[in-house]
């Protein structure tokens, strides 16, 4: 049983050996660019952890982990084009450096490489592994489309449950599937795979609620982002959508007016409205609700409690829980 | 042994049952749009023919055929975005109808669905099939990138062999791989698979030379396209690249001047130059050279000659050869 940090080190050693060809250089430089920007490699490490929950680490978990990491980076390249995002992790995005054509194509070629990785795993569980992965991959695309569809709507027109569904697809199913893929490799039962998948999905949603909360109320120095960035961008978040449910007609009118304009004190005034309608308290409770579901899922997995410790530690770390 | 037409009918019956989900409708309407525009389904039928060359038709050839057809349509959606093409087969392109975001995403989700199809084939040859497919799929992306790279260069700067290589990747390797995938399912030997792959690749290049030739010299009524469309678009073709090799310095200067301008008689004058430097004769010979190589490849396949008849007929039809 290894910690997240130890597994990250092991995975990176494997993943960094993965080489794209030199030519056509525009295509593969674009692919290398997104991988070099880095990231925390959370998904592949979840794959390793899912494996280690049930059995010793198998080489196939590294192949499956590489597949999900390549897939995640493919989505970043294409999402940045769709969002017209100029910056990612402090670096210019792929389409800004290499143009949109190379960005679309490098994402495409990366997605094909995902399946080269999945084609290396043992034949006995290849079909199941590819099937679990494909389901998640399709859902991620569907989540991105729903997100784009929601962008065209007024926040009031977006139903809260539909929003939770969209966020789940866009951000959580790949975490969940990564864990399940590891469990398949480790020989976990279908029942245990299901609990582990649900754990990953609930942690992902709790994490997203926290992310929205910290963007609004977090200490910008600690959080490393501009406070209220989502508010300034009129981004649909858990907080904004719930505020429309919780606030009274006068507050609602004020919120709508603030969204339609850009006064200098926009962030402060929206935050005050959030506090007035207690959406901050609600968010903490909602995050806790998903967190508790996640820990219940973890409890339900029928392996020795001690084997679950690294997953518990990781969830505590991601969800910023003091132990 | 069935003809191309019979196999097309059989494949369409299978393929048309393939359903995308209803929601998110923007995503899947975009995917349905490209499939409904149609096309000749040549690649999947090649898959069926590759199978039938060696054995009775197997259900897996329909899965593999659906995979290559979905892949082909995925490339059409993304290529049309890159080429900023408004029209395909007389219909507005996907990004024109559904926007670029849904077009990128519907291509992505279609590519994932390719691998859902490939995940249905018998485990005994799944790895080999996926590996042959992935190699071709990666090469198609590389070919598209090279094509885009060449677009930025003067025609004189593009080396003829590099151009043939690019065209081979962009248009022929998927035809070749479709045949080989069928052969794998039919139980063809590695050697026979290789000959069949080479046959597909050479037919593909011969077809492309013919396509370029007909665009310039064909009867527009018979060919169904505007004569000289490639010339008006300054498109790099076999003819244009070879003309720069074959013509004398004065002709070269005239050709460059014509490319840099748009006189009313541009098509006629470029065609005259093509004739003067005998690039039309060269193209017919070059097409014949690739055709002969293809038929040699077909001869080399160690099965009864009568089994090869449908492939010979198809090549004759595609390459417009009177028998």
TrEMBL record, chains A, B:
The keyword Transmembrane helix does not apply. This is Geranylgeranyl diphosphate synthase type II. Its cofactor is Mg(2+). GO terms for biological process: isoprenoid biosynthetic process. It comes from Chitinophaga dinghuensis. The keyword Transcription does not apply. Gene3D superfamilies: Farnesyl Diphosphate Synthase. It comes from the Bacteria. InterPro entries: Isoprenoid_synthase_dom_sf, Polyprenyl_synt, Polyprenyl_synt_CS. It holds the Pfam family polyprenyl_synt. GO terms for molecular function: metal ion binding; prenyltransferase activity. Keywords: Magnesium, Metal-binding, Transferase. Belongs to the FPP/GGPP synthase family.
